[in-house]
Amino acid sequence: MTTAPVNLTRSIALITAIAVTIFIGGAFMLHFVPAPAKDKIADGLLADFLVTFPAAYYFIIVRGLKTKPRSMVFIISLCCVAGYLLLPQHQRGYILQVRKLTSVVELLFIIYCVTRFSKIRAAYKSEQLLFADPVYNLRTAMTAVLGDTLPIKVLAAEVAMLRYGLLWWKKEKQPAIKNIPFSTHKECGYIAIWCIILVAVTVEIVAVHLALQKWSHIAANIVTMLTLYSIIFLIADLSAILKRRVLVNGDQVILRTGLRWRVTINTGNINSMKKITTDNPSDKTCYKGGAIKSNCNLLITFKQPVTVEKLYGTSKEFSSILMGVDDVDGFIRVLHD
Question: Are 320 and 297 in contact (CB under 8 A)?
Fold first, then answer.
């Protein structure tokens, strides 16, 4: 039952390591090698950017995970952008030639996505009628129309993250069915910790940007943009944790912590609920799902394993969940009534 998630995690970790080695390692190598060897290194990196990494992605992700090969167009485009920004001026002509070859395919793919937009919208509204959860409903609608592939799941997750990060002020649409909500952030002091992290990241942006500018303006701007994107992710995480509460509706319970994970269960599958005051030892069958994993106060065990759904489409079964709920006594009382 856990083979697919394990393979997915390993494949993503492997392709990420290769990307870091080729793109970031290659950029540093190009900067520090002696001038006579720079052209040869640049030629090798050009081949790595346009051939080695796309080939690695194909064998690890497309063939390894049996996904549709259309995501290759997007990967090659990203490689071209990275090569254009990182490689010397005389290499950019080759990259532009490759871009001409992929631009037609990209245009056709964009047209395909636009024609599917109305179907995605209809599928999303249909899911919203059942339960108002924009994050998972968007992913379900997009995978139903565009295909149940890793790139589509990642795209849906990024759209959801941008929604909560850029539209943090927008209120969450309430489900048509009346639910009893329970917040998950107060007891662990998540807002205070979040503020500390935000200040630290903001200071880091300035320091790293100034340091990198002495080496490369392009590298400094890229790192700064990535860090700003991570701030949007931090805002999305806090916004979602404040809005996406644990919900109880009769014999149905929605357990979740912001955008990070979600479990939909029936109260009949709950074996026990235990309020804890210290960190409870857990094994691989227990999922730690608190806003702060080291500060949880509720242990729920199940008669049958439940599926924990993650933001980027991965899922895994667990026999118990260790999480944080602000009003633990009230939550347990509602489920016992």
Answer: no
